[in-house]
Design goal:
By secondary structure, the protein is an alpha+beta fold. Helix content is about 20%, strand content about 30%. It has three helices and seven strands; from the N terminus they run ββββββαβαα. Strands 2-1-7-3-4 form a five-stranded mixed beta sheet. Strands 5-6 form a two-stranded antiparallel ribbon. About 20% of the residues are buried.
Length: about 140
């Protein structure tokens, strides 16, 4: 259940606080791939009686054991075993907007919807340039 980054195992003790998430590629034993994004942190809000605002709770997501949102891929991982799949982090992202942008960028660059060697069936994104302000300012 290891994630790899630049060919090396990546498995920190805690999710890195400086990143919101990452874009990844999962490869099955036959070379079929899936590109997606995953957040390191999940946020929930809960209404508290007697308060106007809600209580916000942040906790680590299930990123360590995550195998994508593709139904077919998840079924195959369950059938053949997690150890048969290679999970690679393509890019760490500081914001959710960056995750969405780079997920779509990698998917379009690789033509995932036009090829038979990708599980991806949908590219869905809605990204505002303000979500990428840091990247725009840094060139």
């Amino acid at each position: 259940m290891t994630w790899y980054y630049k060919g090396e195992p990546y498995n920190p003790d805690v999710a890195p606080e400086e990143f919101a998430g990452f874009v990844y590629e999962i490869t099955d034993p036959e070379g079929i791939k899936y590109i997606g994004k995953k957040q390191f942190w999940s946020t929930t809000t809960k209404k508290i009686e007697g308060r106007k605002n809600r209580k916000k709770t942040v906790k680590e997501s299930d990123w360590r054991k995550y195998y994508g949102s593709s139904k077919l891929l998840k079924e195959q991982v369950k059938e053949f075993g997690e150890d048969k799949y290679y999970r690679e982090i393509l890019r760490f992202c500081e914001t959710k907007g960056e995750c969405s942008y780079f997920e779509a960028k990698f998917q379009f660059e690789r033509d995932v919807l036009l090829r038979d060697d990708y599980y991806n069936e949908l590219i869905m994104c809605r990204i505002n340039s303000s979500h990428l302000r840091r990247l725009k300012n840094n060139g």
